[in-house]
Amino acid sequence: MPTGIYDRKKAKLNKGLFKKGHRINKGVEKSEEHRKNLSIALKGRKSWAKGKHFSKEHRHNISISCIGRPSAFRGKHHSRISKEKLRQSHLGKKTSEETRKKLSLIHTGFRHSEKSKLMMSINQLGDKGHYWKGGKTNHSDGYIYINSPFHPHKGKDNYIFEHRLVMEKIIGRYLTKSEVVHHINGIKIDNRKENLMLCKNNIEHRKLHKKINHSFP
After folding, report:
1. Phi and psi at residue 152, to the nearest 5°
2. Which pTM value belongs to this model?
3. Dihedral, 102, 107, 108, 113 alpha carbons, nearest 10
4. Residue 203 to residue 157: CA distance in whole angstroms
5. Phi, psi for 145 (deg, rounded to 5)
6. β-bridge pairing 136-138 and 180-183
């Protein structure tokens, strides 16, 4: 063998460097320029796994090897350009009947454990939920609701009337279930301190409304 092609001394030094599961680029952060160059270089190339089918045993081994490893995409987000590219690539595409059948067979008979259900519900609480709007919402009855999961008089959905919370801050205690907060100007969303009046019960609140109605011809 000609000299200079294969250095045996270097080979001895590098012995044991490439072990099973070793990642040469682990912890190395690539620059934006380097990433762009990689994407340009790989553009048009077919995926090495395209058209290949792994055996059940091989899939099982892959799943075992990935246990405990954090996802490569964890904590990362697609850019707007990337999202648009993904959207464009899926336009006009429809899932075949064969794929639909396969998906339905995968999920038939599958049930989440009670622990799994609890973890999913915890992960969707408050600002973690998909439909989170800052914890403030306008209800169909015209009042404003505030998310208060630790309030003793919270509803099933952890929400409570904003005007009741404002009144509780004014008087320095929790309101009883019988107590009613009245809006002086009649505007339900106007929850200023000056516009709120506390009534002992619903009877007192109705009497107050009758007086207001009689005062106007």
Report:
1. -65, -25
2. 0.44
3. 160
4. 28
5. -110, 145
6. unpaired
148 φ/ψ sector (left φ>0, alpha ψ -120 to 50, else beta): beta
* Unique residue bearing structure tokens 């309030």: 151
Closest CA to 191 of 139, 144, 154: 144
In this structure, what token pair is assigned to residue 108? 């038939």
List beta partners, residue 137. 145
Estimate the share of the chain in helix, then strand, then coil, as percent rounded to the nearest 5: 40, 10, 50
pLDDT digits (tens, 9 = 90+) for 138-188: 888 889 999 888 899 888 888 899 999 999 999 999 999 899 999 988 889
Q: Which two tokens stand for residue 136?
A: 């403030």
Q: What is the predicted pLDDT for the residue at 78? A: 86
pLDDT of residue 190: 92
Model pLDDT, residue 207: 86
Distance CA 56, CA 26 (A): 28
Gyration radius from the chain CA atoms: 32
> 159 — phi, psi (to 5°)?
-110, 155
Reduce the secondary structure of 16-63 to three states and give it as a string: CCCCCCCCCCCCCCCCHHHHHHHHHHHCCCCCCCCCCCCCHHHHHHHH
- CA 156 from chain centre, in angstroms, equals 21
Mean pLDDT across the stretch 109-118? 85
Check residue 27 and give its pLDDT: 61
CB atoms within 10 A of CB 160: 20
One-letter amino acid at 37 equals N
